[in-house]
Structure formats: structure tokens, C-alpha cells
């Protein structure tokens, strides 16, 4: 009956009909019915039956199999708490869980990410003398790795080996993949190297994990070395291996090598998949070989594969535009149309953005006209892109005209739209117009976000309205808006500008108290302003604090310090900082070199102090000012 899915009839037979025939149900009879109920997602009924029989007493005493069946049923239905309650009830009944029960519970807890509970059950399992089998260990380690806890997984791996268990290739693969996902490449390769000594022969999937990990971290040379090692060990690459290697070669610009791998793959009887063709097409798009792109697209279509869609081409176009390669991007745009793809609003907007970024607004509007002619309405992102182009190119009046057109077309501006226009107005020094727009935003009920406040505060400071910016900043702080470090940096600089040093110091001190961390820009603002006020000792203490916070001073800051000290006549101290210049991470900027020539040349006012500089810079004493 249970096999035929007639569970209700089976329950009736168990509880009523068997006794009529003089038969007494035993634990096997009950277990069959319990399993059938659980298979039908009726685990609660199974539990009710189990508890009813237990309360009635009698000859039937449920064993670990019956309990495990219902526990597993609850887990399958997502009733984790009920499953755990029944597990504890079973323990209280004096029934010792077996390896199947424990494994079922651990596996189910891992699937719902209750890792700490799973860990306790595993520990209890070991303490009770039940030896976990390899599947249990792997299930637990897999879940730890999946949740970014590969270091803990490694501890359990070591625990396995210390107990005499020999991890198999699946367990090794699990931990290798965990390390790879978290970027722990040194741990990954050390574990891989230990496999051979432990008698584990790496198969193709293990090598794939290593190759993919190195490729994703940009270590493509190392990925190629692993690929070579794989072949040397007689392991044949599969489609996944070739996909990873070809993608890596394409990103390196080694397209001929990538095609070589494609041909070798086909020669061994493996057929490239969509992922491989996509990598190659993207590579040739990026390097401008559109003839090869057409060839590969045709090849895909002849094999019955779906060709790259407009989403793919839009991504390529966007990447090229961001690199300033708008001509190449337009060629890809035309190619997409030629092979039958229809550009969408994202494709057109990406291309418009490309022209805006290189200052070709006339061409950006030609693309807009083509977009409208194709029956695609520009959206708020298209308008915002064009507004940003006008703003960047100092054509704010054209931007305001376009904004009016946008509003006339009933397109509601976003925060980014307002931010773009405000930024443009402040850049053009039109503070009054910017303030008017802010007032209109507030009146229309538009929420002023943190990013907008950042633009307003920075814009006011840029236009010599520091006191006004400080007043607004104090109002924003009173609104309990969580500020970021960038805004605080802007305001610290503003406070120094208007000789409100104590307030600047207090604001700097509040950064850590707010749970934020001062960044390199914060320290640069503090140090340079303290130096400008002649507070050299305080500035040096601040630099020391910066270094103790593991925030190394960069080349820009060291050059700032050198220039300020030189301008103040602090030649010895400037020389001390010049000693930090190594030509690698820290180099002298052109403006610093120019200042050194002006101050220490034959006509310079500090020419007598040239010997106070480090020896390698004393040649400035013989320079002449042109």
C-alpha cells in the first residue's frame, strides 16, 4: 500500500485492520508507515503516530530508525526546530543516534546555514563514540567553506587526519575550493602540494579549481603554469578547463594563444561551449578585430548556439566607453545591429556616455537622435548622462535647458540627476543658482540624500562659502544622518580655511568615536593644514598616528609636506622628508622639483643652505632658473 502511495489505507491497516486479523504491528510495520507519511510531506502526522503509540505503551518500542525517519522528514519540509526537538526527545528516551541520524541532522543544519548548531551536533557525535563517515565531514566542511569560513573548515580537516581518517579527493576538493573562493591562494597551493604526499592523485576538477582561482585574482601567469603542470601529469583538460584558460588568455590580450587553445581543444574531440565563444568574442571586441568577431558569431550560429545578445554587447560597449575608446565602442554598436541585435536604452545610453566622457557632445546627441528614430524613448538615465556631459564640459546653460526639456517630457529626475546639475552649477561658480535648485528640490518634496549633501557642502567650500557650509553641516549632524569620511574630510578642510582650527581638531577626533576610520585623505587634510599654520610638531605627531594606524603616507602627501616646509624655510626638516623619496612608491613631483630649483639654484634665496639637503639633491645648487 505504501509503495502504491496509498498511505491513508496503510495507516488504517496498521491501526485497525491488523488487530482484526490477530496480527500485532511491530516496529518494522510502523517504520514503513512513518516513512510513507514523511515521503508525502506529512511528517507532523508521522510524529503524532509515533507519540500516540509511545504513550499507549505496549509491545512496540521505536528504535533509532523510526525516529531518524521522522527527523529526516521534518528537515525535508524545512521544520528545523521540530526536527531538533524530536532529536532531543529521542536522546531523552535513551535511544542512541546512529551515524545516519547524526549525518542527516548535520547535513540538514548545514543546508539552513545553522553552522554553529551543526558544529555542536558533530562534536556530540564524536564524544558519543559515533565515528563520522567521510560524507558527514565533507558536508560540514562544504557548508563552512560556502559561508566564507574556510579557516574553520581547515581545522576540521586537521581534526579528521589526527583521528586517523584519511580525507579523500572530494574532501580535498571542498577545502581547495573554499580557499580559492576566499582568495587564500597560499593555503590553497600548500594543500594541493600536500595531496601527492598523502597518496591523493589530483584529477581534472582539482586543477580547474586552481586555474580558476589564479585567473580570477589576475595571476594569469600562475594559472598557465598550473595548466602546463596538469598536462605534464597526464591529466586531460575538460571543457571547463579550456573555458577558464581561454578566458584568462583573452583578458591578457593573448588572443592568438587563446585561439591556439581553442583549436587544440577541438582536435582532442572537445567542443567549445557558449562561455568559450563569449570569452573569445569579448576579447576580439576589446582589441578591435571585428572581422574575427563576425567569424566567431557565425560559427556559433552554425553550431546552433545562441549568439551573444544585446546585453553582452552593451557590456562591451560600456567597458570600452569607460576606457575612452568610444570609436571602438561605436564599431561594436554597429556590428551588433548588423548581426541582427536590436540596441536597447542601455546600449544607446552607454554609447552616449562614451561621447560625453570625451567631450563630443554633438556626437552624443546624434546617438540620441538615432535612439529616438529607432523608437526607443530616452529615460532618466539617458538624460542624466547627457546632463553630466554638459556639466563636465562647462556647458551648464545647455544642461539647464535639457533639464527643462526633461521635466516637460514628464521624466522624473533621480537623486543622481539633481546631483549632476548641482555639481555643474557649483563648478561653474553659480552658487546662487545651485541654492535655488536646492530650495526647489525641498519644496517639491524630493528627499535630500547624503550624496546630495556631500555635493552641496563641497560646492559651497569650493566657492568660498565655508562658513555657510559649516552652518549647513551642523544642521545635517543635528538630523542624525550617518555621515561618511569624505564629508568629514571636506568639513575639516573648510574649518581650517576659516581659522576654526579647534573645531577641525574636534571633528577629526569625532571620526573614530562615530565608528568611522580616518583615511589617507583625512590625514593629508590634517597634516597639510597644521603645517600651513606653522604647527610642525603637531603635524609630525599626526603623521606618526597615521603610520601607526597602518595607513602609509603616499607620494602626494610627502610632496605636500616637502613643499610646505621649504616654503616656510624649514630646510632641514624638508630634507628629512626628501630622504623618504625612493623613486618607487614615493617620487618627487614636478611642482616639488620646480620649487627646489627656484629656491636652491644660483639665484635662489636658499642657495646658501643647499648643504642641508640630502647629498643626492645637492645638485640643485648648480641649476639655473629659465
User: If you average the pLDDT, what whole number results?
Assistant: 86
Proportion of beta-strand residues: under 5%
**What's the gyration radius in Å?**
35 Å
Number of helices: 34
Uncertain segments? none
How far apart are the first and last residues' alpha carbons, in Å? 104 Å
Determine the structural class based on helices, strands and strand pairing. mainly alpha
Q: Report the biggest beta sheet as strand number plus sense, adding barrel if it closes.
A: none
The total of beta strands comes to 0
Question: What does this protein look like?
Answer:
With 626 residues, the protein is an all-alpha fold. The chain has a domain at 554-626. The chain contains 34 helices and no strands. The longest helix is centred in the N-terminal third of the chain and has 14 residues, at 7-20. Keywords: Repeat, Transit peptide.
Core attributes:
626 residues; extended
List the helices and strands and how they pair.
Elements: H1 7-20, H2 27-39, H3 43-56, H4 64-76, H5 80-92, H6 99-111, H7 115-127, H8 134-146, H9 150-162, H10 169-182, H11 185-197, H12 204-216, H13 220-232, H14 239-251, H15 255-267, H16 274-286, H17 290-302, H18 310-322, H19 326-338, H20 345-357, H21 361-373, H22 380-392, H23 396-408, H24 415-427, H25 431-443, H26 450-462, H27 466-478, H28 485-497, H29 501-513, H30 520-532, H31 536-548, H32 555-567, H33 571-578, H34 590-600
